[in-house]
Amino acid sequence: MKDLQNVSETSSLPIPRRNALRRLFGGLWESLERARTRRALFQLDSRDLADLGLSHADRLNELDKPFWR
Asked: Which residue range forms the structural domain that includes residue 55?
């Protein structure tokens, strides 16, 4: 019984590394979501922008931002 290995661990990654991967993938997901919503914003006409309370200048300002911001 002394030679048995403890296999009760569910993951082989240490906690800090697992959290780093979670933050990395979370940041990637947020960047992709921002890019998707900016593409949708690009397709809106002036009436849709007015419904949202946005001007054409607001839209251009948002579209000029890089995907990571």
From this structure: 15-63
